Amino acid sequence: MAKVVKIFRTVRNHWKKTTVGVCLLTWSGHWLYGRHCDDLLRRAACEEAKVFGDQVIPPIVQAKRATVFLNPAACKGKARSLFDKNAAPILHLAGIDATIVKTDYEGQAKKLLDLMENTDMIIVAGGDGTLQEVITGLLRRKDETTFSKIPIGFIPLGATSSLSRTLYPENKDKVKTITNAALAILKGETVQLDVLQIKSEKEQPVFAMSELRWGSYRDASVKASKYWYFGPLKTRAAHLFSSLKEWPQRHQAALSYLGPTDRPPEEPEVVPSRPPLYMRILRRFTLYWSPPKEEIQPVDVPAEAWEELSMSAIELSISTSNQQPDLKRTEDSMNIRIEPDTVTRGEFISLGSQKVKDPKVIPEGYQLLQGSRCKLQLSEGTTGFFGIDNEEYEAMNVEVNLLPRKLRFFCDAGRKQELLQ
After folding, report:
1. What torsion do the CA atoms of 250, 255, 259, 265 make, to the nearest 10 degrees?
2. 87 falls in which pLDDT band (50, 70, 90)?
3. Is the peptide bond before 232 cis (omega within 30 degrees of 0)?
4. CB 416: neighbour CB atoms within 10 A?
5. Do residues 238 and 226 touch, judged by C-beta distance below 8 A?
6. Which residues pair with 332 in a beta bridge?
7. For residues 351 and 162, what is the distance between their CA atoms, to the nearest angstrom?
């Protein structure tokens, strides 16, 4: 009993040291428990991947080849460590012949895609910026018709990974999200997603999976990191100072668009069987001695019904339906959202802060249009930047085309079932 009394007396006399010690022990225990849970997740994922690696394949069949584009600078320089610990072991245990290409600077992935040889799958390990570069480089190739059929795996390692919400179940645990993405690649379930083609007169086309944003909310959110000294209020501070510099903030342009197009029925890809050798030789001789005559018949192309309007908005966004895809829809269209410039300063600050946390927040009185093509003609003297999948591009006159179901992405099987319901 005397020892217990002595311990309590010591704690009372040194309560500050005791408080600090308890806090450190609690934090250390929580950290160790988190590390232990992460190790259990990795072990379970590796055991599941080993099942794929133990499968016997015929001697004449090659192992699946994967080209991995890894951005080591993503997630504040932690992307390489996250990939090596959580994704690479799963791919190797499954028997995938992975070629890892690390990017050293912005825009390098676009150039490397021109040199990429044929592969069974493409894996993007990074954030929205890395994915946007890979998609752009892939669809700029001259043989993009062939290469666009290669399935793409997305391992979300960046600070912003918008597409991961579509492909995988939402999870706050980074390790769980990465291992789920790697396992989804092994299981082979895919979903077809739309792509935005953004063309201008000056540059080559840029491709995006999510959206093009132009407006005050985007500009203010990009500058939020400069006001880090405001702590949790930095986003509100960025919108406040933005409203003090200029008000009202209007973005004026001429907008024209075409309506949605009917979605053709999805037909399974049929690989024709190769005819016998004598048939191939006979066909070549036939084509050589009597080549077919090409008859060009005039085709009546119906005039396109463009809708035109003049807009003045605080923000304009042109987005795909990839965030909430409807796999059963009968029309292909992109969403053109025009947000009114009649908001007050207080509403601008409040809505802007909410948009950073949840991009789905929309003010009252907005206008929503649906189209398959869109032309944006900016007013003279317009400056600023577009946000294309969270990457900055100089604002200019552009034409945006929807490429429906252009690319196939690996996805979680349960997530695909949710989209089909």
Report:
1. -90
2. very high
3. no
4. 16
5. yes
6. 261
7. 20
Query: Where does residue 309 fall: left (phi above 0), alpha (psi -120 to 50 degrees), or beta otherwise?
Result: beta
> Residue 81: how many CA atoms within 13 Å on its side-chain side?
5
Whether the pLDDT of residue 296 is over 70: the answer is no
Strand 251-258 and strand 261-262: pairing?
Answer: unpaired
Cα–Cα nearest to 414, from 116, 199, 171: 171
Q: How far apart are the first and last CA of the chain?
A: 66
- String of DSSP letters for 285-324: HHHHHSPPPP------PPPP--EEEEEEEEEEEEE-S-SS
Are the beta carbons of 103 and 130 closer than 8 angstroms?
yes
Q: CB under 8 Å to 3, separation ≥6 — which residues?
A: none
Question: Does an H or E element contain 76, and which?
Answer: helix 74-77
Neighbours of 400 (CB within 10 A): 21
Could you give phi then psi for residue 160, rounded to 5 degrees? -120, 120
> Measured between alpha carbons, how far is 278 from 130 in angstroms, rounded to an integer?
49
How far apart are alpha carbons 175 and 158 in whole angstroms?
13
User: Helix, strand, or coil here: 340?
Assistant: strand
If pLDDT is split at 50, 70 and 90, which confidence band does 268 have? Answer: low
- Measure the CA–CA gap between 347 and 344, rounded to whole angstroms: 5
Contact 234, 225 (CB under 8 A): yes
Contact 124, 152 (CB under 8 A): yes
Q: Give the angle 209-215-221 at the CA atoms, nearest 5°.
A: 80
| Helix (H) / strand (E) containing 20 | helix 15-53
Strand ranges inside 39-116, DSSP E: 65-70, 97-102
Length of the chain: 421
- Upper half-sphere CA count for residue 295 (Cβ side, 13 Å): 1
On whether the CB atoms of residues 259 and 391 are closer than 8 A, the answer is no
Cβ contact 220:400 at 8 Å: no
Q: For 206-234, what is the mean pLDDT?
A: 90
pLDDT digits (tens, 9 = 90+) for 125-168: 998 889 999 999 999 988 888 888 999 999 999 888 888 888 98
CB 225 within 8 A of CB 163: no
